Amino acid sequence: MSDMNMLPEHSPEHELVRRGLTKPELIRLMVAYHGLVTKVKDKYYKGPRCLAYVRHLIRALRYDNDLCEVRRRLGNARVLQEDLIPLLIYFNDDIPLRNDIIRLLVNFTQPVILLFCKSHGHKDPATAKCMIQVSQYLQQYKKEFTVERVMNVLGSILAELCGKDREDHDDDDDIIIDRILLLFRNILHIPSDPAEEKRTDDDVDAHGQIIWNLHINGIFELLLFVGSNPNKTQWCIHVLEIVFLLLREQTPSNLATADVLVQVAQSFAERQNDEKLVVWGNMLYM
C-alpha cells in the first residue's frame, strides 16, 4: 500500500505527497498537525487514524537514510515520549495498535552502532554529529522507561503471552514476546548520562531505576521462565543479553550486596536443582 493510500483522501498531507513532498517533511507535518494521541486535561484520546499513522512511521523508519533523518526528526518532535508511551499505557487493549506500538518502540531504541554500522562513523563529521544527536535522543527515551506503569504494561503483556497454553499460542504471540525482549535489551543497552541526570553519588540513576522497575513488575521471574523453559530456547540469547546488560554497570562489591540480584540468582539455582531432581527421579523409575 502506498503512502497516498494511508492518508485521508482530502487531507493536506495527501495533497503534499501528490506534489512530491519528501517523506521526512511529511512525517513532521503528520506529527505537528494531527498527532497520534491528544491530551485534554488529564485524559488521552487517540486520533481517528492513529493505527494508520503508526504504520506509516514504521515504513518511514524502514526507508530512512544513512544519517537517520527521519529518526532524528521524530526524536526532536518527542514522538516516543508524547505519543507512543501514552498510547501504550492507555490503549494497550487495542491489540493491533499495541503490537505496532511495541514494534515502533523497538525501532526507536535501536543501539546507535546498529543504525550507523554502514557509515564511516567518526571519520565523517556529519555522520558523527548525527550519531551524537541520536545518542542524546536514546538517553531521553531511556528515562521514559523508569516510569513504573510503562514496565507494568510490558510485563503484563509478556506474562499473558508466556502463560498461554500451547494450543492457544500462535506465531504472532512469539513475535510480540521477541519484540518485548528486544525492547528490554535495547533500553538496558542505552548508556546513562551522569552529566545530564546531575545525581549524587548515592542516588539511583536511570539504569538502576529501570532494573528496579523490572523487579517490582515481576519481569525478572518472567525472564527466568523464558530462559529456562525448554520450549522457549529461541529466546535464550535475548535473556543472556539482558542479564549481561543488567550487570554491566555493577561492580563486584555492588553485586555482593544487591539483594534483588541475589534473590534472582537463588531462584534460578533452585529452579535448576528442581529440574535435576525431576530428571533423576525419572531415571530411577526407568
UniProtKB/TrEMBL annotation:
MF (Gene Ontology): DNA binding
Cellular compartments annotated: Nucleus
GO BP term, example: DNA repair
Matches recorded under InterPro entries: Timeless, Timeless_N
Keyword Nucleus annotated: yes
First-listed, main subcellular location of the protein, grouped into a coarse class: nucleus
Pfam families: TIMELESS (PF04821)
Domain Timeless N-terminal: 43-264
Domain of life: Eukaryota
The entry's keywords: Cell cycle, Nucleus
GO cellular component, one term: replication fork protection complex
Protein name: Timeless N-terminal domain-containing protein
Organism: Amphimedon queenslandica (Sponge)
